[in-house]
What does this fold into?
Amino acid sequence: MEHPRDHAYPGHWEADVVLRDGATARIRPITTEDAERLVSFYEQVSDESKYYRFFAPYPRLSDRDVHRFTHHDYVDRVGLAATVGGEFIATVRYDRTDERGLPASAPADEAEVAFLVQDAHQGRGVASALLEHIGAVARERGIRRFAAEVLPANSKMIKVFRDAGYTQRRSFEDGSVRLTLDLEPTAESLAVQRGREQRAEARSVQRLLTPGSVAVVGTGRAPGGVGRTVLRNLRDAGFTGRLYAVNSAFPESTERLDGVPAVRSVTRIGEPVDLAVLAVPAERVPEAVEDCGRSGVQGLVVLSAGYAESGAEGRERQRALVRLARSYGMRIIGPNAFGIINTADAVRLNASLAPQPPARGRIGLFTQSGAIGIALLAGLHRRGAGLSSFISAGNRADVSGNDILQYWFEDPDTDVALLYLESIGNPRKFTRLARRTAAVKPVVVVKGARHSGSAPPGHTVPVTRIPDATVSALLRQAGVIRVDTVTELVDAGLLLASQPLPAGPRVAILGNSESLGLLTYDACLTEGLRPLPPQDLTTSAVPDDFRTALTAALADSGCDAVVVTAIPRVGETGTTDPADGGALGTALRTAAATAPAKPVTVVHVEIGGLAEALSTATHSGPSRPSPPTHSGPSRPSPPPTPTPPSSEPPPSGAPGTPEPAAVRIPAYPAAERAVRALAEAVRYARWRRQAAEPGKVPEFLDDTIDESGAATLIGRLLGAAPDTRRLSLAPGDAHELLALYGIPVRPALPAPGPDEAVAAAARLGYPVALKTTAPHLRHRADLGGVRLDLADEAQLRLAHRELTERLGTAVELRPVVQAMAPRGVDTVVRAAIDAAAGSVLSFGLAGAPSELLGDLAHRLVPVTDRDAAELIRSIRTAPLLFGWRGSAPVDTPALEELLLRVSRLVDDHPEVVSVTLEPVVVATHGLSVLGATVRLATPPARDDLGPRTLPSHY
It folds into this structure.
C-alpha cells in the first residue's frame, strides 16, 4: 500500500556529479514542470538515437508521451534527468513490472529501465552516472533487478550495462538483447564506481591546472589590486597559453592591458576560455559566473572574499555560488582562495597572489589557508625545494583535498603530496584516497584546528566528533604521515622528495662534532630508530674526510640511512673558511651518489653556503623522462596511469641513476628536526612494505559466527524499541548477541543484599568477585568498588557489608557477583561508529592511568589479522602484555581473535553503533570478558556506498 509521502518530491535524490571529462552535471527527478525542457531535449537527439530508444522511427514526442514521461509517482515510476545550465542532456526512467512484464506495484521487485542521451553528450559518462543513481533510487523503493531491452546495434548502451559491475544475465529475444541486472552492490560494481570517480575527479582538477587560456575577471584599470596582481603574475611566470584581462568598466576603446587583450566580458573574447580567475567583489561574482558559464568556461578560481567566513549571509552566498557554477558544469577553487600554480614547462601557470612562483620540482602542495600557503611557499623556496603544483583552496566550497589527491595519485610530475588541512569534510573518503595514494607516493598532512571541535569559519563541512588522537591513528593506518607543524611538513617533504625510502631503522651518524653527534644519537632513540655509535671526524676534518667517511658508511650493509653532522671548521689561525660550505656540499653529494638507494640528511650549525650547495641540482627528485612538448597549449588530455616507484635501486649507469650534480641532500639546523623527518620516512617505508602484502580476515571466524541469527536478533530488538535512534541493550540481550559472534561474556548476578549474594555465589561457584556497577564506580577498583577472590560465604557477607558501609547503599551501588576469572592483564575493547569516518575499533589497558594518559590505539573497521596484531602492540603500555619485568606473557593471539570478532560484528551489522567490552582479562592461556555494553540504532547512511556525488554541504 502506498502512502502519501511516497508521492512527495524526493529532494534527496538531487545530486551534482563529475563526468568523465571533468565537467559537472546535476541529476534530479523529472517533474511535471519539465514538459518544455523534455520536448526541447528530444528535438536535439538524433534520429538514430531515437530509433535505439523506441525501436522504431520516432521523430517527436506526442502530448501523451510528454505527460507520461513527466508524471511520476516516485515509487513505481521514476524519471531522472541530467542537466547542464538547467537544460536536459540525458534522461533515464524505470517502470516497476511483474513477472509478465506488466505495470505493477510492490512487492514486485523488478523494473524496466531505459536511457536517452543527447548525441553531443555521449561518451562523457552521463549514462553510467545515471545508472548509478537510478539504481540507488530503485533499491530505496524495494526494486532488486533492472531489465532492459536493447537493440544489438546499440553497442554503447550495452557497454554501459556490461561495465557497471553488477551481476547480470543476457538473452536474445525477438531481435533485441534482454539484459537483467541485479542491483545489489558487488565488490566489482563498487570498484568500477570508484575507478570512474577517480578518473573524473582527477580530470576535473587537471582541467583547472592545465588551461590553454585564462581570463582574469576584475582586472583593475590602475596598477595594483588583486586582479591586476594575478594578471601580472601569470604573465611574468611565462604562462604558455592565452591571457585575457576582463573588466566591465573598461572603456570601449581599451584593447590591451599590460600587453594582454582587454575585454568588457568573457563572452566578448570570442574563443574558448578554459579557466577564469574571479577577483571582483562578492556581490558581483554571480554576474561574472553567469558570463563565464554562458561562454563555456571550464573552471573558476574565486579569489573574492565575503562568503562563509563572514557569517550566515556569506554562507548562503557561498551555496548559491556553487549551485550556479555547477549548473554550468564548472568546478570552483575557493572562494576566498589564494590561487593555483602549475610549474610544468608546458603550462607555467601562476594564477595566484604569490609574486614569485616556486621552482619546478616534484612536490605537490595543497593548503586551505592562504596565509599558511604563503609561509609554506616561502619556506620551501628558502630550502631550495621545487613544486609540481600548488593549490590554496580557501573555503574549498567545491574542490577539496580529496579531489587533489585523486589528481596527484596519477600525476607523473608529483612524487610527494603535502597537505595543510583545517577540516576534513569526508574523513571516510579521505582515508580511502590517502591509503591508495600513499601506496605509490608519500602523503604528508598537518592539520590545524585539531582541538577546537569545530571547523574554521568558511568551512561549511560536517564536523566529526572523533578525538584528534583517533584521527591521527586512522591517518597513520592509511599510510598518511601525520606531522604537527608546518615546519615539520616542510622538513618531511624535503627528505621524501629528494631521498630514497630507507630500508630499515638503522642509522649511521658521522660528523666533526662529538656533541652534535650525541644529540643526534639521542634524537634517534627518542624517535624509535636504531642508531649506530656516532663517528667523530674531529673538528679538523676537511670536506674530503667527510666524503670518505660518508662513502664508507653508505657502503656498510649494517646501516639503512646516514645523518651527517657538521659545525664550522676552525683552522690553525682560529678562523673559519667561507668556502667550506660549498666544498663540503659538493663532497657530500659526490659521496651520496655512490649509494642512491640509501637516504642521507645533514645537520649543520652556521655553515654558510652549505644548505645552498646541498640543494643545488637540476631537480628535486629522481630522474624521470620529460613529458612530450607541444607547440602550443590546448585542452588537456587525460592523465596517464600511475606507475608505482620501484623499491629496488636502478643499476649503475641506468636511466634514473642520480649523477652527483643531480643529488639533493636536505639540510636541517637542528638534529631533532632531521631525525624526526627521517623517522617519518622509516615508518612510512615500513607501512609501504606491509601494504604490499595486506592482511586478511581468518576464515575460521566464519565457522563460529552466526551472522543471520544476529541479524534476526537485532531486527527483533530494534522492532520492539520505542526509539530506534539509540537503544542500550539489557545485559542478557547484549550477551546473547555477542555469543552469536563467538564472544562469551561471564555472567554477573545481581546481589542487592548479602543473602542474594550468597545465593548467586552458590550458583556460580566459589571463588567469586563482588563489585559495584554504579556508573561513578564502574571499573574503578582503585576506589574500593571491587572485592576479589572471595573464597566462601563468610568472606562474601563481610565484603558485602564493608562495601555498603563504605561506599553507599545497595540501591546506589548496584552490586553484582561474578565467578573469578584466571588472573591476567585487564584490557578494554571498544567499537563505535562515526557517521563521517565509519566504524572505529579501539584497544587499550583498562584502568584510570590508561584513560588519563589517553593510551588507546585505533583502527578503522574492518580490521585484518595484521591490523589486530598492530593494534595491541601500538599502545605505550603494550610491554605489560609481553612479559614486562619478568611477568608471564599473556595470550595475545586470543586477544587478536577477539578484536577480529568485534570488528566483524560491527562491520556485518551497521545497526551496532557501539560495543564496549570492559574489562577483558587476558591470561597466559585464553581470556575472559567480564563486562559488556552494546548499543543499537538505525544505521546512518553510508555515503561511500551510494552513487557518485559531489558534496552538498557547501
DSSP finds 27 helices and 39 strands in the chain. The first strand starts at residue 15 and ends at 18. The longest helix spans residues 187-209. Confidence is low (pLDDT under 50) at residues 1-6, 618-659.
